[in-house]
Design goal:
six-stranded mixed beta sheet, Ribosomal Protein L4, Chain: A, single chain, alpha/beta, elongated
Amino acid sequence: MKLDVISLDNKKSGSVDLDDAIFGVEVRGDLMSRYVNWQLAKRHVGTHATKGRSEVSGGGKKPFKQKGTGSARQGTSRSPKHRGGGIVFGPQPRSYDHKLPKKVRKLALKSALSAKQAAGKLVVIDLADLKAPKTADLAKKLEKLGWGSALIIDGAEVNVNFARAASNLIGIDVMPTVGANVYDILRHDTLVLTQDAVAKLQERLK
């Protein structure tokens, strides 16, 4: 399929051929969901911890004598049934990371790209660069383009001036092609690819 290429000044500068096998596949919500869960699980630190009865301080002495108090016999105040005692089956440090097959990851990324293209939220620009890292200048350009929430993916490297200018804009994220992922694509309203990014993604997802 063909898609118009525009500049940051919102002027048409040509067209680009998009591979239907990457930007026109059936959208698989189930695979995208698995990808997002896998991606976010890798961020989960898993440092939560509770103390068991053997780790709670104190309680080495018998709380009160065995007989004559009218209360049930107790051997330690560290028992889970006592206030301040140990926790039974409480959370312990662990990793939430799990495996996801490469084929599933690749198909999920294709689905995310295809979903944006089908919804008319995919935009291809010629270049993502600025002569100076001026946030105000970039903000004016993006306002004319109507990009309030956008993920801009460049080629192998991101233009430094463009990245610095965009870093101060809420809702605008910039990354190289190698960082393209389903989660960031879905959480932004508009997906913006440079021509270099299109070439790199088609090479990566063949």
